[in-house]
Amino acid sequence: MTGKIIDGKEFAASVRAKVAEHVTRLKADHDVTPGLAVVLVGQDAASEVYVRNKGKSTLEVGMNSYEHKLPADTSEADLLALINQLNEDPAVHGILCQLPLPDHLNEELVINSIVPEKDVDGFHISNVGRLSTGQKSMVPCTPLGCLMMLRDHHGSLSGLNAVVVGRSNIVGKPMANLLLKDSCTVTIAHSRTKDIEALCRTADIVVAAVGRPEMVTGEWIKDGATVIDVGINRIPHPEKEGKTKLVGDVDFASAVEKAGAITPVPGGVGPMTIACLLANTVTACCRANG
Ligand code: GUN
């Protein structure tokens, strides 16, 4: 079987179009424009690209974007003071502090200083707890994007066996919680899991989020299973010397031969993450305005 390729670019464009419509209605009916503040500390090259893309996408859907770029040696007190100011600003509905932070800053403390209602990343301990107990919360953007694609493909996920490969706080754990909420039977696999290949072969859904290039091969995939690849890894290009190539955590060439549906890298999960960030900002704005 050759799997259907799930087009994340197209799906993300449709999510962004819905967000833009919602923003237009909020402006017309409630005289409110959703606003997203993004805080970047230091000059990590990858983070700068992410932050630029977030700002651009925010403006494209008609929302306000507030970028705060701080020097790498910013003190914790100064960063917390800025977050406090954003917490209290009624024009700001979502706050995102780009990770990783420089080493001298306590990431946990900084994340938990954002008020949970504006925590559009869904990383605040209160949102983590709310998600894991099935209460209304802000949901981390990447797992939310994966869930949307899975629901779109399957309709109901109820009763399906899902294996999430990777146990990170940002993707693996919230992904497992979301799938559980949708009544999947969920297993989280990780580096100590015994016979991970055989475990994955029992899955109707495999979500790969480990950060190991092309680890999950077609051999691991049950015929017809859905494969969601969260990995973004840069490897030396196999044919072009001196060049690099972007690959996922899944060996696409072999997995596509077994899967019923599969997300590519690039053009799969990646574009959904920013689209979900925009959707979370609109959600936060709606909740703030009753
Ligand atoms: N760095 C890499 N991914 C993310 C993300 O989803 N949110 C934040 N805040 N930082 C990141």
Outline of this structure?
Belongs to the tetrahydrofolate dehydrogenase/cyclohydrolase family. This protein is of the alpha/beta class and 290 residues long.
What descriptors fit this protein?
Bifunctional protein FolD, methylenetetrahydrofolate dehydrogenase (NADP+) activity, multifunctional enzyme, Rossmann fold, 2 domains, 3-stranded parallel sheet, 290 residues, 6-stranded parallel sheet, globular, methenyltetrahydrofolate cyclohydrolase activity, alpha/beta, binds guanine, single chain, THF_DH/CycHdrlase_NAD-bd_dom
Structure description:
- This protein folds into two domains: 31-118, Leucine Dehydrogenase, chain A, domain 1 (Rossmann fold), CATH 3.40.50.10860; 141-271, Rossmann fold, CATH 3.40.50.720.
- The protein starts with a strand and ends with a helix.
- The relative contact order is 0.17.
- The chain has helices at 8-30, 45-60, 76-88, 107-111, 125-132, 141-154, 172-181, 196-200, 252-255, 269-288; strands at 4-5, 35-41, 64-70, 94-97, 161-165, 185-189, 205-208, 226-229, 233-236, 244-247, 261-262.
- A six-stranded parallel sheet has the order 1-11-8-7-5-6.
- Strand 2 (35-41), helix 2 (45-60) and strand 3 (64-70) form a beta-alpha-beta unit.
- The protein is built from ten helices and eleven strands.
- The structure holds guanine.
- Guanine (GUN) binds at residues 96-99, 121, 141.
- One of its GO terms (cellular component) is cytosol.
